[in-house]
Amino acid sequence: MSFWSRIANAMHGERLNREIEEELQAHIEEAVAAGRDPAEARRAFGSALHAREAAHGIRAAGALESLFSDARFGWRQLCRNKVTSVAAVLSLALGIGSCVAAFRLIDALLWRPLPIANSSKLYVLSRKMIGLYGKPIEDGHWATPEYKVLRDAIKDQADLIAVSDADRTDITWSTEDDTEKAHVAYVSGNMFPLFGLEPALGRLLSPADDRGPGLAPYAVLSWDYWNRRFGRDSRVLGCPLHIGDQTFEIIGVGPRGFTGTETGTVTEIFLPLSMSSLATQESVTWHRTFLMLQPDVNPATALEPLRQHLSAVNRAYETEHAKRFKGVNQTDIDRWLNQTLVVTPAGAGISDLQKDYRRFLGILGLLAALVLLIACVNVGNMMTAQAAARAQEMALRISIGAGRRRLVQLILTQSALLAFFASILGAAFAAWSAPFVLSLVNPPDNPARLALPADGRVLLFGFALIVLVVLLLGLLPALRASAVRPVAALKGGADPHAPRRLLRGAIALQVAFCCLVLFLSSLFVASFQRLANRPLGFSTDRLLLLETVTSKGQLPVVWNQTAEAIRAVPGVDAVAIAGWAVPGRIAINSDISMNGASPSPTPAWFLNVSPGWLAVMKIPLVSGRDFLPQDTAPGAAIVNETFAQTYFPGQDPLGRAFDRNGNQFLGPTVPYKIVGVVPDVAYRNLREPNRAIFYTPFNAADSKSIPQSVDFATFIIHTQAKNPLALANTLRQLIAERHNGLRVSNVTTEADLVRDQTVRERLLATLAAFFAAVALLLAGIGLYAVLNYSVLQRRREIGIRMAIGSTRTAIVRLVTLDVFLMIALGGCAGLALGIGAARFVATLFYQVKPTDAAMIALPACAILLTALVATLPAVLRALRTDPTQILRAE
To answer: 670 with 660: CB under 8 angstroms?
Structure first.
């Protein structure tokens, strides 16, 4: 008989039994028909039960049959307690789904290898050093001339690859087309060949495209962008692409699945490194440098010698380059030279998104795992209670010949059924939740994009998770069931208090996990609230921001005339111009000196603004005046209070002068005279402390009073409507129709700009609050189930105590004292674990200390309130016990 036939017979055991009995009866009837005595014929064929069992061994897979039988019995057990089973499945589904969703996000961002050849041998170079404010930093960007020096130094041992960040760039496909945004990256010509990539269409960039600045005006589209933007039209080859004043020719399309090395961002257009104007700048670090070991090189032995060699070359290059620094503080030069070269694995790509969200995803995974553990403890308590209640049944099974292995299989099968149904719901929850969480990571105009396939990696993790859940749920009840001693169990059990002790220990464990989740969640919620309510120093109400650029630069008068035109549009209250919006991605600092002295060790940050900018932003003057239309830079300056306290402590800064030290980026040293003082405002990042800032007039002129052109600026517009975006299209069209070279590159609001600064904290606080609520709910259900079971088991004892005169207070103490001791023990353990865990993620908190009394009191009060609510039904059940009925039953 074939294997599949045996499986089919095992799945239909009742039918097989009938067939065997019919066949046996047919043989007996044949013997009787042949003249044999019926009784003798029956004795000759033996026991019907023995014959049926023997036939089962031939016609059915015995182990499979018992497994299917246990599954049917487990299903009947689940159906008998529908409410409990549904609650168990839903709680497990939430835990399993959360864990799978967290794994999908962590795997996609941090672990999944790039779709390239030899991704395990790809590394990225960076430098560790001390930052401006004495804190260690890691700089992963390099200047192109230094990259070439390093590349040539190790060309016989490994290859270096240059890849810039994929920045959102204004592009047009013809002079008549509207401008659109695309993520553009500049790459060295050896990237595609070293990654082992083949074109989907045309050709890819090659080392020949690195032959010199401006000599390779070619572009390669990613497959994703080609599919989305052009519908896979092969006629895209040869089309012109305009970026600023440069024109590129489309020469090919990259392979499907490769979206660059910046995980979380889909690079849409690849350009040769040599086509960037920054490629010749020695002092501009703007692209990453990857190291690809050759296939036959062992990383364990070759990596450290390579790092040491590159470090020596880097040190020599930077020392020589530092001799050409002008106007830079010697302290800053020494700090820059005191750097350590680091080689980090980059097989999964490298990006700022990984850096920003690495710890966040770790916390997300921890919270999801804790919720799953709480759910498992909950359901495990239920199964342990059921196993204790079925002790006599298990003893009877053993007495009539059931093996202990069969009892373990029976309990584990029921656990597997729960895990199976929970995994189906959990998979649906994970399929929805992972993309939902990802959609919240970045603003809508620049969302993070990660591949979240349900491939073998995810399925393998899900299967391992199900096995773990089955063991957590059923292993202890199964071992207890298999250890039952039939004689003792049939007499009532050797130790009737053992199940209660086990359940109380589970209560302490469950409360500890729940308290840990609540503690961490309260920290993240409080951190977000304090960051969101941080004083900005300005108003975000009804402010529209038009980020505007010009390809060739325009004089300030053109910008001011455009501002006047915007001011005349109905619905506009006021208009001002700034170099960029605050808080924003751009931040420029400079050394400051007074009276020709050496530069101060603390740099200051600056921003050029037009007259009226303070009024539009609703930033009050502490003293002095606003800029006047005739003020130019250099000349007048407005400083914030931190600037005044840093450089003029205890003095009135009005009328005092300072020098902004020059360098190769900012030009020569220029003097300024302070005409006003304003409060501190958030300049770059809401998490940063207040920095020294000085504001300069938007109108700039050189030493000969000749106006200087401006390449980009932001119009800040206060609107009458509550929704500033209602005027966006009108104002964008107005600027385009003026034909003065200005073009709106991006539109947003000040409120959105500030809100985007708290995306990570808001998301973490939201998810933490969700997991905290789930943990509390599961803990409450678990406490209720355990106490209810305890009251039912001790009903006789409670009745006798009440009959001999115990007070209601004594009964309440009897029912709840041990439980609340376990709650206190678990709560203390959970808080201790929480304080320890918080130290590892302290950088994720904003002005929140884990040891604050409020942070400790909040989870403690939540646990206590949940415990009171959960114990109330059990206490009422105990107090309603009728002692007369109990004694009559005795």
So the answer is: yes
